[in-house]
Amino acid sequence: MNMSTSIASIIADTSLPKGLKNIAEKIYSHERITFDEGVLLYETAELGFVGTLANYIREKKHGDNVYFNRNFHIEPTNICVFDCKFCSYSRLTKHKAEGWELSEEEILQLVRNYDGKPVTEVHIVGGVHPKMGLMYFAELIKKIKTIRPDIHVKAFTAVELEYMCRKAKVSYEEGLRILKDHGQDSLPGGGAEIFNEEIRKQICDDKCTATEWLLMHETAHKLGMPSNATMLYGHIEKFEHRIDHMNRLRILQDKTKGFNTFIPLKFRNQGNQMSHINESTVIEDLRNYAIARIYMDNFAHLKAYWPMIGRTTAQLSLSFGVDDIDGTIDDSTKIYTMAGSEEQSPKLTTQQLVEMIKQVNRKPIERDTLYNVITDYSNYNFTNEDGRD
Length: 389
Ligand code: V47
Ligand code: SF4
What we know:
three-stranded parallel β-sheet; alpha/beta; 15 helices; binds ligand V47; 389 residues; TIM Barrel; binds iron/sulfur cluster; 12% strand; four-stranded mixed β-sheet; 2 domains
């Protein structure tokens, strides 16, 4: 049975509640679902139902392609002026001794370590350090580009950027323009959490607001800097808050078309002030990916970030709307390790990533940050050398 027949059989099922049947019909005819329909899916739809719809959409958009890239992270510091309750990473207020602060030379050495290696992206994010400002980071990016002119610099969440601009007393547009002129290419999707103001007040009261986050990304898009968007789910938010979050992103994407990828981030509960909250189940994680794929009709890509959910769930997610599993990472990020992810040293070689994707009968496609195809690995034979990085 192909996917369009299984959606057709869902529509033909006379026992299906009317609301869900209407949604299935809309997906079949490529129509957008409403806010209330999104909430209805979360409240009533089973995994099999949303999975069939999401898989149909994913297949229409991407065929069997699954995207990944060769990347590494730089986390300049985990010292942070903010106090997000879900954060297992930041160390200003309580345990400053456990904090780290890389020197400029240490950061540049991390970049030089990749000399001759085929990475295409460096992802730079960290805590919001009171002393590392806009011009420091602008100059740093310029030096990184001098060492590695071909690398795509995806850097700084809207939270970090808002703080940098405020401290430097420049507008978002001026701040972003300076960073762009020094070599920053795009923005990652972090810091979005949940946009609802009441929830934000309880989990991350002191950092940038939802409106500021959205304005930073809108401004970046206007300047020709694309970005990603995340959603931190599975804590104290309700289903309607998830749809509200996605809805605000869907509206901005209609306006700018500047987002590449939507990345749901599962709340992990180790070592933070919200450790008493249970983590979501894998079934709920898969349902969440599927509903995100259904709701975010104007986002080309849906990413499962494997260091956070683990390799097996990342493979499963590919049947629930996901078409991207991020990259090789090279054990260069601590955000999820410190929050209790099962991936305690996130690192996959290109060959391992390719095999993970092939195991679930999909086509492994290495992409650059902007989803230009670098290599189709469907029929690739690795030599001893070329899959190791
Ligand atoms: O904003 C922090 C999240 C984000 C926890 O753009 C947590 O390609 C779960 O945004 N449990 C930063 N999540 C990471 C991020 C990201 C990751 C991968 C790819 C991209 C991209 C962006 O991590 C934060 C926050 O939402 N986070 N603590 C936690 N305990
Ligand atoms: Fe700081 Fe980011 Fe952690 Fe919030 S999530 S405390 S902004 S490092």
